[in-house]
Amino acid sequence: MQRMLIVDDEPVILDGLYAFFQKADFQDMEIIKAYSAFEAIEWLNSVKIDIVLSDICMPGMDGMELIEKIMDRWPRCKVLLLTGHNEFDYAHQAIRNPCVVDYLLKTEGMSHIRAAVERALTQISEENDFRYQHAWFRSKLPRALPQLQRQLLLDLLKRTERHDIASLQEELDAVQLPFMSNEPVIPVIIRVEEWNNYQSQADRSLIRYAVANVAEELLQDKVKVKAIDLDYQVIACFVQPKAEPLSFHTGQQEKWEQTLRFVYGTLESVQQSCADCLNLSVSIMVSEQAVEWMELSQAIAQLRLSIHEGPGLGMEKLLRVHVQHDSPYIPNILNQQSVTSLHLDQIRQRVTAGEREWMESFHKWTEASKEGLQDPFFRMKIYSGAGNGLIELLHELGLYESAMEEIALSRMLHFDIHTPWSDLVVFYQSAYEWIISKRSVTRIHDQSQILITIHHYIKHHLEDDLSLTRIAQEVSLNPSYLSRWYKRITGKGISDYIHDRRIERSKELLLGSTCKMHEISAKVGFSDQHYFYRFFKKATGCTPQEYRDQKS
After folding, report:
1. Which residues carry this modification: 4-aspartylphosphate (predicted)?
2. Is there a contact between 411 and 383 (Cβ–Cβ < 8 Å)?
């Protein structure tokens, strides 16, 4: 999804441009309006903006100053400048700035402005097009250095002791990782939700590499970043600000806040690029704060588990997670050394995601486990690992109490190393099948809960910001994904639902209150009373005053 911010201090012009582009057939583009440069900066500080269509002459801050603010936050944003006069000095400055796509006179008409927006969208598409890299991934994939970098980062995630800063910096420099050992790191997790046509392990391995490159390509404009795959489904990203060495605790808080804001906004583009260019559905979990290197393992584990919190599992989640530094250590796949433990963890991941491939991992686990069952210590480890893994999974998914009643979970109390292996296999297979069935029911319930949350928010915030971005934040989903999902579930777009509720609320206020027209207009989200009149008449066939007179 792309976002275009329209900025003009003249309400009539701004509302006209907003209405024009709302009606235009630009697929998957959200339109936002700002009545001043300062309001525009508030938007730039809160979400990623792809295109800015701005007036040049505004009180307090002109268009050229605004460009500097835009570039400081979103370097790849495209800017279109509007003016009522042919001002050569402004035009000369504008065309020298690489982010400025066009310099337009307001008198040139909407067709010229629309054409300029289309050119900007084309530039964005070309810059974000990763399809051409597919052959490059296969033929020129660099091997040695990336593998060494990945291995060091994986090793760091397994370390629990405090790092010696100088030694760690030597290790980072040796494999040409750009990070500073005396600075904290922002951890990010990218989890593949739907593999779609990528069924073979070779394809999935290649696509994981592609996802990592997409993340690095989009984030590297303003930060130092390295992305690696942790397992068959999950990629981890490590981020630090660019520029000179920083001290997180002494005077550079603002720089870190800017970095976090950039990371949050850009991760939405990572999701979009994965969907558009790789036909891949991913969820992203990012820490709300930077963490020390020795805390990375715990932070990564918490990010991985956060996907199970709240509704929407399997959807394109976009979560900010507050990492608890003092929480107990949570084991993850990086600390599993045996093949059996690897297969067991894959079972848990696939059962949680509702993937049909969970049976494949289950068979691999049973086959790998049988090879060592003659050793009583190995047998004890396998039995206890399977039991602990199932209990942890049930707790994570909130199914423990139900399992106690519906699948006789208490039978596990009687399992020991003398219990026949075949009995355990049957029990655990049945347990995982039961979880799969429950997750299907839960997913339907989750969808209902998300719809209820969306509709409740819209009904109670008609006079506030009802942009797709703001609504998506309420349910922790990618805005573009939310738009597609909502239309698939309900058969109509979110904007249609908002329009219906605004008309419904307008009628209630017209008949059930003595509010004046400009008050009603504001209560249902229209800053321009005339725009409200046109909107109401188009929907009902009469003006608001005519409706009030007829019904009374």
Report:
1. 55
2. no
281-287 sheet: strands from edge to edge: 223-229, 234-241, 186-194, 281-287, 318-321
* CB neighbour class for 434 (10 Å; exposed up to 12, middle 13-18, buried from 19): middle
490 burial (CB, 10 Å; 0-12 / 13-18 / 19+) is middle
Contacts (Cβ under 8 Å, ≥6 apart) of 165: 181, 182
The per-residue pLDDT for range 153-206, each reduced to its tens digit, is 988 887 766 778 889 999 998 888 999 999 999 999 999 988 888 878 888 889
402-420 confidence digits (pLDDT tens): 888 888 888 888 888 888 9
Give long-range contacts, CB 8 A cutoff, 24+ apart: 334-337: 334/154, 334/157, 334/158, 334/230, 334/297, 334/300, 335/158
Q: What's the 3-state SS for 15-56?
A: HHHHHHHHHCCCCCEEEEEECCHHHHHHHHHHCCCCEEEEEC
3-state secondary structure 125-136: HHHHCCCCHHHH
| Intra-chain end-to-end CA distance of the chain, in Å | 45
Q: Which two tokens stand for residue 354?
A: 């509702």
